[in-house]
């Protein structure tokens, strides 16, 4: 991983030319995205460059909008976990130029949304981390996307023992949505760089 990480930092810094650069770190659940973003952020900060990190899961919607909707569980996860159109317009569509963005942040303990303002330095490198980032509605906003490729069995073993007990939920909700993404979006072929994790 260290060699891939160093290469990724180099590739990003080579692409940076003093204007905002938008990087996507895509991958399926438990592929290691958050870890890679943390290392990437630290590596870029060490060069003296500003970095602004967004986690797409900070912006999911309330449970009532993504469970028991009448659609199949995988569709709820893929289509309703986020307000895809709202984020396209109010997050992705503003990343290039906005200095401040008002965004909905999800509080999982209270199942509530709170609006917060995020300040983005004008010449920073923006890193967006999350699952399904290369979906049709969002892909065009990235200057560079790295996809973390990791086998399902490995990712499942990274879940807590308690979470692994809910295997039916994985089969009917998460894995079917992941299969849909892999088959319809083909993230491995559209990413600019692939890292095995």
TrEMBL record:
Catalytic activity, EC: 2.7.1.48
Domain of life of the native organism: Bacteria
The entry's keywords: Kinase, Transferase
Top class in the EC scheme: transferase
GO molecular function, one term: uridine kinase activity
Keyword field contains Kinase: yes
Keyword Transferase on entry: yes
InterPro entries membership: P-loop_NTPase (IPR027417), PRK/URK (IPR006083)
Pfam families noted in UniProt: PRK
Domain Phosphoribulokinase/uridine kinase as annotated: residue spans: 22-195
Name of protein: Uridine kinase
